Amino acid sequence: MYKKTIAKEAFIILIQTSMWGEVEVQKKDIYQFHKGLPGFEEETEFALIPWEDTPFSYLQSVREKDLSFLLVSPFTFVSDYSFELSEVDKEELEISEQVSVYSLVTIHSQASKSTMNLLAPVVLNPQKCLGKQVVLHQSIYETRHLFWSEDEEQAKSVKGGV
């Protein structure tokens, strides 16, 4: 569970996580997912926790310490990534201006085979603290998009990269 404390005009929420134990998050970093996430419809409150010095963040359930997802901005790895958000999704998320987009990450034992889900991005409204995983119908994107193409990996190994 969690408890609220007032600190410098902002609510600080203490949540339990399986990876880091008790973590303080600001109220502004707690997002409401009215319909949950696919497969986890009962979980509707998640904290967005940046992973310092990396492009990654965690989406941590506020109630369930063992439920978290690794996220990344898809634009970090796919510069031409784009999609049109439906009017229904815009209304549900109460989007007027700002929006943040993340992809769910699947870690593979071989890092070069790790993937991100470009077909179903997590869309956040940071002004209203609302979130939703959106499925892009009739899209060219995949649920398992490699971070780096095989050509890039081969070029790195030839140049002595990782």
From TrEMBL:
Pfam entry (one): FliW
Coiled coil: none
GO biological process: bacterial-type flagellum assembly; regulation of translation
Origin: domain of life: Bacteria
GO cellular component: a single term: cytoplasm
Subcellular location: Cytoplasm
Keyword Nucleotidyltransferase carried by entry: no
Keywords linked to the UniProt accession: Bacterial flagellum biogenesis, Cell projection, Chaperone, Cilium, Cytoplasm, Flagellum, Translation regulation
Main location: cytoplasm
The keyword Manganese is assigned to this record: no
InterPro entries named in the record: Flagellar_assembly_factor_FliW (IPR003775), Flagellar_assmbl_FliW_dom_sf (IPR024046)
Family indicated by similarity: Belongs to the FliW family.
Role noted for this protein: Acts as an anti-CsrA protein, binds CsrA and prevents it from repressing translation of its target genes, one of which is flagellin. Binds to flagellin and participates in the assembly of the flagellum.
Matching NCBIfam families: PRK13285.1-1
Record text on subunit structure and interactions: Interacts with translational regulator CsrA and flagellin(s).
Protein name: Flagellar assembly factor FliW
Species whose genome carries this gene: Paenibacillus amylolyticus
Gene from which this protein is expressed: fliW
